[in-house]
Backbone:
């Protein structure tokens, strides 16, 4: 039976859907003013894995991942670029989709944009105001009165007195309390018209936190199964979502809260200020997208993920071993997992233990070793099928083994095949010195030749 570590209870809990056989899951998505970075990659891959496993377990999943397409950073970036908000956000949404597709991330069932849900946000704010949980501040912003919500702090595990205004909580003298957060921002004269909506409180725009409460309840109902996101969102964003949603509806908001760990770079937290900030696109210029996905999945989602070239190279070599097993024992057609088989049962046990992909990947390697030993087509098919459950091993083995940007040698596939043909001709002419020279040249360029009964094949080193 599946168990999930619930941030709210700080323990693993058996997973029981609210509606038998169906799962409703919401994940906080990207703020689209720039290219996605490695932290975004981890969120996308982790919760894609979660959705895949829930579906592989026979559950019907409705997966929502939102897009924040209005906030201060977006407004500033559009103004700096001399373009409209919509032009900016459309461009970076398209880029986000390109990155996600490259990483093998399936599209969520719903991908709502915040600007399409302003009416629902206003309705939720009005409800909070009627319940005495929201007030109009001196600067005409509408704020949430945190101390009036009895359960505030239960997700982060701190009392109100311990909590301080977090990094993304607007601190203003106009609030009744420093911990209060903005639900509706009163429009500034200098802001463009496209970020001003009419409301009962005057022209303005929604605060950041209210959008997720409104979109999730509209698409999934006001009580659903799983809410996910990066660990950095636990406070204040998710804490504030609970306050808004439970304050408005008077009952539990989400049953299971999931948070993936931080991405670190050479053992330091990734951040722009430290200059160790990498976009997905930058990483994909050096590494195959499936290698990046594999790198993310072979760590448990709640652990810190330490990015370095050495770790990516290790991931590439490890994934190469899995594909090499499949190359040596070809699989015909698209295999289906045999869940009665021992390796499949072990992988299921790992995944049912809070999505333990680290252990699941270890099972894949043990299975690959058995494929290499036995050359059994049934086991090779099982390896490919089990990898597919994690969104891995879906390509033709030779295509993966030959993939990647040309290295310093500057050799693409056509150039390599031409060298192999030249080597074959040299061997036929008994010019073995020339044949050895060509092999050495290719080896130096990072290309490994493998001679067999059917001829010579090659792969990237």
Residues:
């Amino acid at each position: 039976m599946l168990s999930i570590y619930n941030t709210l209870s700080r323990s693993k809990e058996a997973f029981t859907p609210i509606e038998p056989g169906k799962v409703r899951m919401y994940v906080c998505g990207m703020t689209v003013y720039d290219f996605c970075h490695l932290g975004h990659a981890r969120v996308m891959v982790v919760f894609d894995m979660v959705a895949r496993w829930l579906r592989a377990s026979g559950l019907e999943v409705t997966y929502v991942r939102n897009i924040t397409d209005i906030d201060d950073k977006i407004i500033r970036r559009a103004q700096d670029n001399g373009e409209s908000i919509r032009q900016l956000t459309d461009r970076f949404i398209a880029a986000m989709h390109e990155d996600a597709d490259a990483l093998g991330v399936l599209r969520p069932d719903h991908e709502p944009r915040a600007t399409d849900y302003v009416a629902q946000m206003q309705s939720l704010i009005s409800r909070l105001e009627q319940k005495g949980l929201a007030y109009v501040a001196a600067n005409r912003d509408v704020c949430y009165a945190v101390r009036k919500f009895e359960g505030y702090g239960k997700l982060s595990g701190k009392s109100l007195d311990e909590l301080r205004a977090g990094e993304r909580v607007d601190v203003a003298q106009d609030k009744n309390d420093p911990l209060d957060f903005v639900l509706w921002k009163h429009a500034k004269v200098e802001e463009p018209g496209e970020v001003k909506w009419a409301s009962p409180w005057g022209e303005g725009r929604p605060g950041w936190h209210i959008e997720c409460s409104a979109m999730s309840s509209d698409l999934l109902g006001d009580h659903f199964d799983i809410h996910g996101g990066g660990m950095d969102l636990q406070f204040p964003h998710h804490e504030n979502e609970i306050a808004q949603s439970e304050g408005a509806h008077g009952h539990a908001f989400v049953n299971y809260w999931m948070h993936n760990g931080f991405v670190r770079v050479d053992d330091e937290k990734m951040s722009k200020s430290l200059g160790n900030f990498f976009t997905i696109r930058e990483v994909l210029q050096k590494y195959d997208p499936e290698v990046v996905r594999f790198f993310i999945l072979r760590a448990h989602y709640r652990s810190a993920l330490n990015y370095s070239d050495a770790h990516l190279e290790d991931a590439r070599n490890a994934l190469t071993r899995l594909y090499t097993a499949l190359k040596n024992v070809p699989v015909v057609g698209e295999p289906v997992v045999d869940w009665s088989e021992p390796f499949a049962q072990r992988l299921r046990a790992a995944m049912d233990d809070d999505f333990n992909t680290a252990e699941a990947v270890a099972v894949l390697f043990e299975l690959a070793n058995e494929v290499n030993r036995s050359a059994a087509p049934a086991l090779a098919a099982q390896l490919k099928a089990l990898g597919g459950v994690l969104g891995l091993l879906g390509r033709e083995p030779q295509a993966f083994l030959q993939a990647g940007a040309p290295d310093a040698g500057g050799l693409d596939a056509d150039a390599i095949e031409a060298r192999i043909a030249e080597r074959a001709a040299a061997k036929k002419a008994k010019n073995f010195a020339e044949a050895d020279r060509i092999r050495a040249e290719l080896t130096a360029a990072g290309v490994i030749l493998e001679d067999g009964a059917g001829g010579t094949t090659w792969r990237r080193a």
